[in-house]
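Figure 2 data, in text form.
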Amino acid sequence: MKRLWLCLLLTLPAPAQTPDFLLQTQRLITSVSDRLKPTVVHIESWSRRAGTRVKAVGSGVVVTPEGRIVTNYHVIDKADQVQVVLDDRSRYDAQVLQRDKLTDLAVLQIKTPAPLPYASLGDSDSAQVGQWVLAIGNPYGLDRTVSFGIISGKGRYIPGSEQGVTPLNDFLQTDANIDSGSSGGPLVDLQGKVVGINSSGIGRGIGFTIPSKVVKEVMQGKQQQGQLERGWLGLYTQPFTRALAAYRGIPSVRGLLVSDFAPGSPAQRSGLQVGDVITELDGTPVEAEEEDEIQRFAQQVSRLTPGSKVEMKVRRASGQTNLAVEIGLQPHLEGAEVETPYGFRVAEITSFRQQQFRLIDKSGVVVTEVLEGSPASEAGVEEGDLLLEWEDRPVETLDQVERLADAPAKANLLLRFRKGQYRYYALLQQRGRKKP
C-alpha cells in the first residue's frame, strides 16, 4: 500500500508556478497600498439635530505635509465640530477651510507637531476606462480598507438629490468598492497618484468618484461668503433633441434650449430669449440631447470668470444671432440656517432656495429639514413650508427664529405655516411630555 501511494505521489503534476508578471503586479499593488494607507484618515463630525448631537463618519486623504485634507462635503455638512483620526490613532480637531456643495468636496486643516505623509493629486483627464485603481477608505468603521478594481466609465452624471442643485461633476465610475464610511477616501492609480475622491456607491461594483481635476479647482478657487466663487448665467435649459430640431424645421442644428430665466439674471439682461437654442459659448460648441450634457454646459459656465464678457451664438426663428454676455457671480446657494429644538430647520430664502422649493418670492423663512419622528414631523410640517407665525407672533426674518428657538423648549408649541397657497396651524408636542 505504501509503495502504491508513493507511486501516485510521484506521478502527480507539479504545482503550477504563478507567472512572473502576476507576481510583479501583486507586489506593485501591495507597494502602492502600503504607501497610501498612512495618508488616509478617519473623519468624525458632529451636528445638532432637534437638541441632540448626531455623529457622522467618513474618510479623507492628506494632500499636504502641513495637514491639508480633502473629503466629501456631505461628511461634514452642517457640522459644528470635526475631528480627524490619523493612522497612528492620534486625534485632532479640524478647521473647515472650504466646503463646496456643488462638487461634494470639502477641505480641512489640522495642526500636527510633525509633517504628515501625504498623497499627490494626479491627472484625472488622462485616466482611461479599464485602468486599474485602488479605493482606500474606512467602510463601516474598518479603517484603511483597500479594494481593487478598474475605472468602469468616465463623464458619468448623477442628478442632485435636491431640486435646484446641478452637481458640477463628470464622475469617474469604478467597480472598486465604495461603501458607507468610504466617502472622502482616495481613488489611486498604480503610480500612487490620487485620480479622484470617492463620493458614493449605488450597488456592488458601481461607485462614483470626483475627478482630481475638480479637486484641484476647488482647492485653488476663491471663496466668497463661505462659497466658491463661480461664473453664473441664471438660465434654465433643457436638451434640444432631434425631435425638437425637426419640429422647429432645423433638423441639423444641435444645441441647448432656453426655457426660462432667473429674475434679473445676466442671461436675461443679455438679450437672450426663451425658445432660443444656444449653439456656442465662448468659442466652444454647445450640444445637449441628454441631461448629462446640460450638466457639462453648467460646468463650462461655472469656470468662466465673473465680470468677464463672452460671446454666445444662438439660433432663433430669425436665424443665427451673436450675443455678448457678461458672466455673473453665482448667488449664494444655501444662506444662513437655524436649528430649532422641535425637529425642524429653517433658512433664509436665497435664489437657490427659491428655485429648490418653487417659491413665489424671497421674503420670510423656509423649512429646509424635518427630522423623522420629531414633533415637527408628527405635526405634518414638511420641507418647503414657510414659517409664518410662532405662537401668534409674525415671523419675517431668520434672526427672529433664532431668538425664539433659543428659549427653553416648551411641551406644546403652536406654529403657523404656509404650504403653497394653503395656511395651516401645527401643534408641536415634545415627546415624553404629557399631552393635554
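Caption note: The chain has a mean pLDDT of 85.
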